[in-house]
Design goal:
Layout (H helix, E strand, L loop, with lengths): L3 H7 L1 H20 L1 H31 L2 H21 L10
Protein name: PLIN1 protein
Keywords: Lipid droplet
Organism: Daphoenositta chrysoptera
Length: 96
């Protein structure tokens, strides 16, 4: 079954944007030692917050019926189909 998040991440405009941001971020960290230490602290904070959010959401996700999640995913996929149809630029990398 399709997963809307995977589909969004595979859109050329999204994947190329993520790649560009990752390159810039890595380049900045390598070029500026002070910025690298700040970024590392930030990264650890984000990882901790993400883990905490995941633990907090787990009971909610467990209570949702799998059918509800599937329905929401299907609706989101249909919405994405509509966006892809109406906005052809989503099929091109950022530089184009």
């Amino acid at each position: 079954q399709e997963n809307v998040l995977q589909r969004v991440l595979q859109l050329p405009v999204v994947s190329s944007t993520c790649e560009t941001l990752q390159r810039k971020y890595s380049s900045t960290k390598e070029s500026h030692p002070l910025m690298a230490s700040v970024c590392e602290v930030y990264e650890r904070g984000v990882q901790g917050a993400g883990a905490l959010a995941l633990r907090g959401m787990e009971p909610v996700v467990r209570r949702l019926e799998p059918q509800s999640v599937a329905v929401a995913n299907n609706l989101a996929c249909r919405g994405l189909d509509h966006l892809e149809e109406k906005i052809p630029a989503l099929q091109y990398p950022v530089d184009k």
